[in-house]
Amino acid sequence: MRLRFHSALPALLLLIPAALPAEDPKPEAIMDKAIEATGGKAAYEKIKTEVLSGTLELSAMGLKGTITMYRALPDKSYTLIDFSGMGKAEEGFNGDVAWAVNGMEGARVKKGDERAVAMRNASLNAELHWQDYFQKVELSGTEDVAGKPCYKLTLTPKEGSPETRFYDKSSGLLVKTILPTSTADGPVTVEIGLSDYRDEGGILMPHTITQKVPNTDIIVKIDSVKRNEDIPANRFDLPDEIKALAAKK
Predict the structure, then answer these.
(1) 25-247: which CATH topology?
(2) Who is most buried in 42, 67, 144, 158, counting CB within 10 A?
């Protein structure tokens, strides 16, 4: 007599647990993966100073120039933009005062959201110690950026408005940030695209940064990266006109 098993097969299959859907990673794990994907904690901790130089273009205005950015631990920064004979723009953060000086707006001290963003940008280890600047991070879903699936995170800072970040699911790299901030002309939302990641001393970093702001795109291309070189201490001093404004607070 032929044994027949087929009639019992459906019942047996019911005993096999169905495959559970994959759980989304915790947002903190996505942030940690980005650090590992770009070089790891130990590589970041070696950086004491950083000097970036490259080119800058304001597409709608037809302006082109050079940009040099200085940063030093723990939270000092200075940026110089030279628009090829049309004037210079400067901005910085000395650990307390965030400021900007340019030919159109003159000298001003940044406040509110704008100061909070400047403070975070001035920190060399902001990515490594993001918990020092953000009180909450949430996974808001997934979204494609340039055809690549990304995790969408909402980060609520301790000071300032929440920002949205998009991390490539595959590589773990940060590819876009949507950042609400305030300016001298009022509140704006800046969309920042990050691409052309290259290894610089053991750390992957974007060499093309595109900022979409009202009325124009700002395209920054990094040509040179120098780390742990001596930066004169007075590089981060406040300009005289900013000292005068700060003294009025």
Answers:
(1) outer membrane lipoprotein receptor (LolB), chain A (2.50.20)
(2) 67
